[in-house]
Design goal:
- The protein is of the alpha+beta class.
- It folds into two domains: 7-31 and 79-143, no CATH class; 42-78, no CATH class.
- It has helices spanning 7-24, 81-114, 118-143, and strands spanning 42-50, 60-68, 74-75.
- Strands 1-2-3 form a three-stranded antiparallel sheet, with no helix packed on it.
- Strand 2 (60-68) and strand 3 (74-75) form a beta hairpin.
- Helix 2 packs antiparallel against helix 3.
- The chain is elongated.
Length: 145
């Protein structure tokens, strides 16, 4: 019977660890319902041209202000700054706690394969996890603003 340290189990657990967020979406950015202008739900109030670029993308119009047809509420891209901060915090926190699973398993593998004390191996992987989670927080915070 394979153990948690056998190569096949390690590969399988790694694949599940990587694919689980992709298929469930729990690490994806969750936009607000009205954050993205939708012609079927919103009335466009103001827009600005975005010039064509060197990569062959044509000129297009960027929505600057839109109104929800059902509620009458008016939105601008700045209306969602608090939501972007909330999502950055949520995604950074979830990334950190999801990464703790990898830290625990990595420490277990190091203990089983190399004889490294569990807490020492865990302490080595923890700053890497924290750096990744902070990177996710920072990227989401700055990419959405």
């Amino acid at each position: 019977m394979p153990t948690l340290t056998s190569p096949r189990v390690v590969i399988l657990l790694f694949a599940v660890y990587v694919l689980l967020p992709l298929f469930t979406g729990f690490l994806f950015y969750q936009p607000d319902v009205d954050e993205i202008y939708d012609e079927s739900r919103h009335e466009l109030l103001d827009e600005a041209p975005v010039p064509a670029d060197d990569e062959g993308h044509p000129e297009w119009m960027r929505p600057l202000e839109w109104k929800n047809r059902a509620t009458g509420e008016v939105f601008t891209p700045e209306s969602f700054i608090d939501h972007h901060r909330h999502e950055a915090f949520r995604m950074g926190l979830i990334s950190f706690f999801y990464g703790l699973l990898a830290c625990v398993y990595s420490a277990y593998l190091n203990q089983a394969r190399r004889g490294t004390p569990f807490l020492r191996a865990f302490a080595v992987s923890l700053p890497v996890n924290a750096a990744i989670a902070f990177g996710v927080f920072w990227l989401v915070l700055h990419m959405s603003s």
